[in-house]
Write a structure and sequence with these properties.
Oligomer: heterodimer
Distance between the termini of chain A: 39 Å
Distance between the termini of chain B: 37 Å
Number of helices of chain B: 0
Structural class of chain A: mainly beta
Number of strands of chain A: 11
Shape of chain B: globular
Radius of gyration of chain A: 13 Å
Number of strands of chain B: 11
Radius of gyration of chain B: 14 Å
Order of helices and strands of chain A: EEEEEEEEEEE
Strand content of chain B: over 45%
Structural class of chain B: mainly beta
Order of helices and strands of chain B: EEEEEEEEEEE
Number of helices of chain A: 0
Shape of chain A: globular
Largest sheet of chain B: 7 strands, mixed
Helix content of chain B: under 10%
Chain lengths: 110, 119
């Protein structure tokens, strides 16, 4: 089947904004999620958006959803070195099943 | 709230032995837990869905006799890798589904993962 696609790498300077993109596959997904994974650790829920929303803001995080194009993005304002990690988007094609994206490795340069 | 633990965090075993990994929801009850496998620099692949009091549901291509799942209580699911081989070496992550902390929206909360190395 099709993969949930993300760009593999993103490098930004500390203090700049980061934008991580995700193209998902299932238009019936009710919720779409963003998770953060630090080296050797599990996944930390960052935020999620309901499918009838276009945008959700949560402190430094802004999620944009374009259902027509099945495109999801995560913007991190004022990116810090502690934001360096792998970011996964996830769609929910079933009642509870998550399909994760390929992951974007964010590197923040001091 | 919504903390999930895994034990052990790291295990090294000899080929042919069995390894049990525990996943616990510490401050909530979870009728459904999930087991994922993650290879280096890759995404998470769902292996199976663990339902309390019933048989696990395995994803296509996952051998149920190889990866035994038991969900004996509302706070504990175990994954046993039977007769482990080097190709089973991987990062195994569990998650538990709950609406705690998210209003009515059920969300998956993940454990810290278990790194398995089979020699």
């Amino acid at each position: 089947g099709e993969d949930v696609e993300q760009s593999l790498f993103l490098s930004v300077r500390e203090g700049d904004s980061s934008v991580i993109n995700c193209t998902y596959t299932d238009s019936s997904s009710t919720y779409l999620y963003w998770y953060k994974q630090e080296p050797g650790a599990g996944l930390q829920l960052l935020t999620y958006i309901f499918s009838n929303m276009d945008m959700k803001q949560d402190q430094r995080l802004t999620v944009l959803l374009n259902k027509k194009d099945k495109h999801l993005s995560l913007r991190i304002a004022d990116t810090q070195t502690g934001d360096s990690a792998i970011y996964f988007c996830a769609e929910t094609p079933g009642t509870y099943k998550y399909i994760f994206g390929t992951g974007t490795r964010l590197k923040v340069l001091a | 709230g919504a903390v999930v633990s895994q034990h052990p965090s790291r295990v090294i075993c000899k080929s042919g032995t069995s390894v049990k990994i525990e996943c616990r929801s510490l401050d909530f009850q979870a009728t459904t837990m999930f087991w994922y496998r993650q290879f280096p620099k890759q995404s998470l692949m769902l292996m199976a869905t663990s339902n309390e009091g019933s048989k696990a549901t395995y994803e296509q291509g996952v051998e149920k006799d190889k990866f035994l799942i038991n969900h004996a209580s509302l706070t504990l699911s175990t994954l046993t890798v039977t007769s482990a081989h080097p190709e089973d070496s991987s990062f195994y992550i569990c998650s538990a589904r709950t609406s705690v902390g998210q209003g009515y929206q059920e969300t998956q909360y993940f454990g810290p993962g278990t790194r398995l190395l089979v020699l």
